[in-house]
Amino acid sequence: MIWGVFQQLRIISASPTQLVLRELPLLEWLVAFLIALLGVNFIIIGINITAVGAFLVAMAIVLFSRSRLLIFDAADKELRIVFQYPLMRRVANQLPLQQIDRAYIRQDDNGSTQIILKTQRGEMGLSVYSRDSHPWKDTACKAINDFLRGLRP
Length: 153
Fold this sequence. Notes:
The chain has helices at residues 2-6, 26-44, 48-64, 136-151; strands at 9-14, 18-23, 67-73, 78-84, 89-96, 100-107, 113-119, 122-125. By secondary structure, it is of the alpha+beta class. The protein folds into 2 domains: 2-25 and 66-151, PH-domain like (Roll), CATH 2.30.29; 29-63, no CATH class. The strands form 2 sheets. Strands 1-2-3-4-5 form a 5-stranded antiparallel sheet, with helices on one face. α2 runs antiparallel to α3 (48-64). It starts with a helix and ends with a helix.
């Protein structure tokens, strides 16, 4: 359940030419915040060297955390999966849009669900398995399928 809360694909922009979904690294940011809070406590009790270490660890966690962007681009005719770090951006994967059939939600035996992208080569998971009750997976699937439907004659 917690993964569905912390790792949600949110629609950033939706137009007939481009659909952008983003997954923020909320769990990493929460851990960094807790470690920084621990550093503040170390300063209060006078353990300054350990506090500096805690702040450095928190900063490293934030610098190495990555947002994931899914960019469905009609102009380039491709899906780009991009990892956005605070200091850089890296394209992790590219897939031609004509190879993508649809997006759907798969449910396993214990009720956990995952967004799946059905392609001509097979299936690709777009989200984590989770049992959350929020409708964000339905919203993301509908947006992806509407975008793909708009490209087809």
